[in-house]
Amino acid sequence: MKSGSSVAVYPGSFDPITYGHVDIVDRTLAIFPELIVGVANNPSKKGIFSVAERIELISESLKDRKGVRVESFEGLLVDFCKERGAAVIIRGLRALSDFEFEFQMAMMNQRMRPEGETVFMMTGPQYFYLSSSIIKEVVQFGGDVGGLVPEVVNERLKSYHGRKLSGR
Fold first, then answer.
1. Which residues are catalytic?
2. Cα 107 to chain center, whole Å?
3. Which one is the CATH code of 7-127: 3.40.50.620, 3.30.565.10, 2.60.210.10, 3.40.190.10?
4. Is the peptide bond prior to 114 cis by the omega test (within 30 degrees of 0)?
5. Which of 33, 64, 87, 95 is least buried, going by the fewest C-beta atoms within 10 A?
Protein backbone atom coordinates (compact mmCIF):
# COMPACT_ATOMS: atom_id res chain seq x y z
CA MET A 1 0.00 0.00 0.00
CA LYS A 2 1.30 3.43 -0.84
CA SER A 3 2.12 5.67 2.08
CA GLY A 4 -0.39 8.40 2.76
CA SER A 5 -3.31 6.41 1.32
CA SER A 6 -6.28 7.21 3.51
CA VAL A 7 -9.07 6.75 0.96
CA ALA A 8 -10.11 3.31 -0.26
CA VAL A 9 -12.69 2.32 -2.86
CA TYR A 10 -14.77 -0.84 -2.53
CA PRO A 11 -16.27 -1.36 -6.00
CA GLY A 12 -19.01 -3.74 -7.04
CA SER A 13 -22.49 -4.10 -8.41
CA PHE A 14 -24.00 -4.69 -4.93
CA ASP A 15 -27.21 -6.02 -6.49
CA PRO A 16 -28.16 -6.45 -3.70
CA ILE A 17 -25.79 -5.59 -0.87
CA THR A 18 -25.38 -8.52 1.54
CA TYR A 19 -23.99 -8.88 5.04
CA GLY A 20 -20.86 -10.27 3.38
CA HIS A 21 -20.38 -6.84 1.76
CA VAL A 22 -21.13 -5.10 5.04
CA ASP A 23 -18.50 -7.28 6.74
CA ILE A 24 -15.88 -6.12 4.20
CA VAL A 25 -16.96 -2.48 4.72
CA ASP A 26 -16.61 -2.76 8.50
CA ARG A 27 -13.21 -4.40 8.29
CA THR A 28 -11.99 -1.84 5.74
CA LEU A 29 -13.04 1.01 8.03
CA ALA A 30 -10.78 -0.46 10.71
CA ILE A 31 -7.85 0.19 8.36
CA PHE A 32 -8.86 3.24 6.30
CA PRO A 33 -10.60 6.32 7.70
CA GLU A 34 -12.47 6.96 4.46
CA LEU A 35 -14.22 4.45 2.21
CA ILE A 36 -16.08 5.03 -1.01
CA VAL A 37 -18.47 2.25 -1.93
CA GLY A 38 -18.38 2.46 -5.72
CA VAL A 39 -21.54 1.13 -7.35
CA ALA A 40 -20.70 0.03 -10.87
CA ASN A 41 -23.09 1.27 -13.52
CA ASN A 42 -22.82 -1.25 -16.32
CA PRO A 43 -25.58 -0.48 -18.85
CA SER A 44 -25.15 -3.88 -20.50
CA LYS A 45 -25.87 -5.72 -17.23
CA LYS A 46 -29.48 -5.67 -16.07
CA GLY A 47 -29.85 -5.89 -12.32
CA ILE A 48 -32.88 -6.26 -10.11
CA PHE A 49 -32.30 -2.82 -8.64
CA SER A 50 -31.41 0.30 -10.56
CA VAL A 51 -28.16 2.05 -9.70
CA ALA A 52 -30.14 4.74 -7.86
CA GLU A 53 -31.99 2.08 -5.83
CA ARG A 54 -28.72 0.31 -4.99
CA ILE A 55 -27.18 3.58 -3.81
CA GLU A 56 -30.25 4.22 -1.65
CA LEU A 57 -30.21 0.69 -0.15
CA ILE A 58 -26.46 0.74 0.49
CA SER A 59 -26.60 4.22 2.02
CA GLU A 60 -29.42 3.16 4.32
CA SER A 61 -27.63 -0.08 5.23
CA LEU A 62 -24.41 1.76 6.12
CA LYS A 63 -25.88 4.96 7.58
CA ASP A 64 -24.38 4.41 11.04
CA ARG A 65 -20.82 4.08 9.76
CA LYS A 66 -18.61 7.16 9.75
CA GLY A 67 -16.28 7.76 6.84
CA VAL A 68 -18.39 5.96 4.23
CA ARG A 69 -19.91 7.47 1.15
CA VAL A 70 -21.68 5.73 -1.71
CA GLU A 71 -21.24 6.81 -5.32
CA SER A 72 -21.86 5.30 -8.73
CA PHE A 73 -19.29 5.10 -11.49
CA GLU A 74 -19.01 4.12 -15.12
CA GLY A 75 -15.91 3.31 -17.07
CA LEU A 76 -12.56 2.34 -15.64
CA LEU A 77 -12.31 1.82 -11.92
CA VAL A 78 -8.77 3.25 -11.89
CA ASP A 79 -10.07 6.51 -13.34
CA PHE A 80 -12.79 6.70 -10.67
CA CYS A 81 -10.17 6.08 -7.97
CA LYS A 82 -7.84 8.73 -9.35
CA GLU A 83 -10.66 11.31 -9.54
CA ARG A 84 -11.52 10.58 -5.88
CA GLY A 85 -7.93 10.61 -4.63
CA ALA A 86 -8.09 6.93 -3.66
CA ALA A 87 -4.92 4.87 -4.00
CA VAL A 88 -6.43 1.62 -2.71
CA ILE A 89 -9.03 -0.71 -4.19
CA ILE A 90 -10.66 -3.18 -1.79
CA ARG A 91 -11.77 -6.53 -3.17
CA GLY A 92 -13.55 -9.19 -1.17
CA LEU A 93 -12.70 -12.84 -1.69
CA ARG A 94 -14.87 -15.77 -0.71
CA ALA A 95 -13.16 -18.75 -2.27
CA LEU A 96 -10.21 -19.72 -4.39
CA SER A 97 -12.46 -19.48 -7.43
CA ASP A 98 -12.77 -15.69 -6.84
CA PHE A 99 -9.02 -15.23 -6.72
CA GLU A 100 -8.12 -15.90 -10.36
CA PHE A 101 -10.48 -13.27 -11.78
CA GLU A 102 -9.68 -10.76 -9.02
CA PHE A 103 -5.94 -11.27 -9.47
CA GLN A 104 -6.21 -10.60 -13.22
CA MET A 105 -8.20 -7.43 -12.58
CA ALA A 106 -5.72 -6.27 -9.91
CA MET A 107 -2.79 -6.76 -12.28
CA MET A 108 -4.54 -4.85 -15.07
CA ASN A 109 -5.43 -2.02 -12.68
CA GLN A 110 -1.81 -1.96 -11.49
CA ARG A 111 -0.63 -1.70 -15.09
CA MET A 112 -2.99 1.19 -15.83
CA ARG A 113 -2.29 3.00 -12.54
CA PRO A 114 0.99 1.89 -10.99
CA GLU A 115 0.59 4.14 -7.95
CA GLY A 116 -2.58 2.29 -6.95
CA GLU A 117 -2.86 -0.89 -4.91
CA THR A 118 -5.45 -3.63 -4.55
CA VAL A 119 -6.08 -5.07 -1.10
CA PHE A 120 -7.83 -8.44 -0.95
CA MET A 121 -9.96 -9.22 2.09
CA MET A 122 -11.38 -12.60 2.90
CA THR A 123 -15.00 -12.37 3.85
CA GLY A 124 -15.90 -13.51 7.34
CA PRO A 125 -16.47 -17.28 7.64
CA GLN A 126 -20.14 -16.80 8.44
CA TYR A 127 -20.61 -15.20 4.98
CA PHE A 128 -18.18 -17.34 2.98
CA TYR A 129 -20.95 -18.90 0.87
CA LEU A 130 -22.96 -15.72 0.41
CA SER A 131 -23.26 -13.87 -2.90
CA SER A 132 -25.75 -11.49 -4.46
CA SER A 133 -26.51 -14.16 -7.08
CA ILE A 134 -27.46 -16.70 -4.41
CA ILE A 135 -29.64 -14.11 -2.67
CA LYS A 136 -31.48 -13.40 -5.94
CA GLU A 137 -31.99 -17.10 -6.59
CA VAL A 138 -33.40 -17.77 -3.12
CA VAL A 139 -35.74 -14.76 -3.37
CA GLN A 140 -36.90 -15.81 -6.85
CA PHE A 141 -38.18 -19.08 -5.42
CA GLY A 142 -39.76 -17.50 -2.37
CA GLY A 143 -37.02 -18.28 0.15
CA ASP A 144 -36.23 -16.22 3.22
CA VAL A 145 -33.00 -14.19 3.14
CA GLY A 146 -33.50 -12.51 6.51
CA GLY A 147 -30.20 -12.33 8.39
CA LEU A 148 -28.23 -12.47 5.14
CA VAL A 149 -28.99 -8.95 3.92
CA PRO A 150 -29.70 -5.71 5.79
CA GLU A 151 -33.36 -5.43 6.80
CA VAL A 152 -34.06 -2.56 4.38
CA VAL A 153 -32.83 -4.79 1.54
CA ASN A 154 -34.81 -7.78 2.80
CA GLU A 155 -38.01 -5.73 2.82
CA ARG A 156 -37.39 -4.51 -0.73
CA LEU A 157 -36.56 -8.02 -1.94
CA LYS A 158 -39.83 -9.38 -0.56
CA SER A 159 -41.62 -7.40 -3.25
CA TYR A 160 -39.76 -9.48 -5.85
CA HIS A 161 -41.05 -12.83 -4.53
CA GLY A 162 -42.20 -15.03 -7.38
CA ARG A 163 -40.91 -12.75 -10.11
CA LYS A 164 -38.08 -13.78 -12.39
CA LEU A 165 -34.97 -11.91 -11.32
CA SER A 166 -32.46 -10.89 -13.95
CA GLY A 167 -28.86 -9.83 -13.64
CA ARG A 168 -27.44 -13.15 -12.48
1. 21, 45, 94, 132
2. 19
3. 3.40.50.620
4. no
5. 64
